[in-house]
Specification:
With 205 residues, this protein is of the alpha/beta class. The chain has a single domain (4-195), classed as Cytidine Deaminase, domain 2 (3-Layer(aba) Sandwich), CATH 3.40.140. The protein contains 6 helices and 9 strands; from the N terminus they run βαβββαβαββββααα. It has helices spanning 8-20, 56-72, 94-106, 152-164, 174-179, 188-198; strands spanning 4-6, 26-32, 40-42, 44-49, 76-83, 111-115, 129-135, 138-141, 147-148. A hairpin with a 2-residue loop joins strand 7 (129-135) and strand 8. Helix 1 (8-20) packs parallel to helix 4 and helix 1 (8-20) crosses helix 6 (188-198). The chain is globular. The chain starts with a strand and ends in a 7-residue tail after the last helix.
Length: 205
């Protein structure tokens, strides 16, 4: 199946989402702006929930909203991510498997990423995620695909910089949007900040 390419933007937002709610499980959608077919290139993510991940009605509303937004922005849902409340547990929960199955129905090379809580520290030299593939109607740890971050050192630096300055609070997931509908769950301001930090003008590339 080859590599799964993960953008700086998507990784940093997943990292900040898990960091913002360290005592909760969090989840979200993985998006691609690339055409279907070939390697999976994750260019963006949508943070969904930090409470009641197994509550079906809220999940369905969030998925519908995200799907509509993707249609408007020429993106497609190619995967799912989750961080469990227990840092030593990076196994998919039943609700994670159910959502990943739903995505797989629309994208036959969909990916399930689980955040590895034991690697969520500033000096970790590898991405804090593990990949699951769907084989024989089950999701199993991938032995074929690896995560590729073309700008890993820059990505790690930006994630740590935003975390150290408390900017994980800028991230808005769908849960927070439901609490205050004026808050933007597409995170355009945070996206702009991440991309500014990644720009050559800031010496990141």
């Amino acid at each position: 199946m080859g590599e799964v390419e993960l953008s700086c933007l998507a990784y940093v937002k997943m990292f900040l989402h898990a960091s913002q709610f360290p005592r909760c499980s969090v989840n979200g959608l993985l998006l691609s702006s690339n055409a279907a077919g070939g390697a999976v290139c994750i260019t963006e993510c949508v943070p969904l929930l930090h409470s009641h991940l197994s509550l079906a009605p809220i999940t369905q509303v969030a998925l519908a909203q995200a799907d509509a937004w993707c249609s408007q922005t020429q993106q497609r849902i190619v995967g799912y991510y989750q961080a469990n409340a227990c840092v030593s547990d990076s196994s998919p929960t039943p609700s994670a498997l159910k959502i990943a199955d739903k995505i797989f129905e629309q994208c036959n090379n969909a990916v399930l990423l689980m955040v590895d809580g034991e690697k969520m520290f500033p000096d970790c030299r590898v991405p804090a995620v593990v990949i699951y593939d769907r084989k024989d109607a089950c999701w199993v740890l991938s032995d074929e695909r690896t995560i590729m971050l073309r700008q890993w050192e820059e990505t790690r630096s930006i994630a740590n910089q935003l975390l150290s300055s408390g900017d994980q609070a800028l991230l808005v997931d769908f849960d927070s949007h439901l609490d205050d509908i004026t808050r933007d769950w597409t995170n355009q301001n945070l996206n702009a900040k991440i991309m500014e930090l990644l720009s050559p003008a800031n010496g990141s590339v």
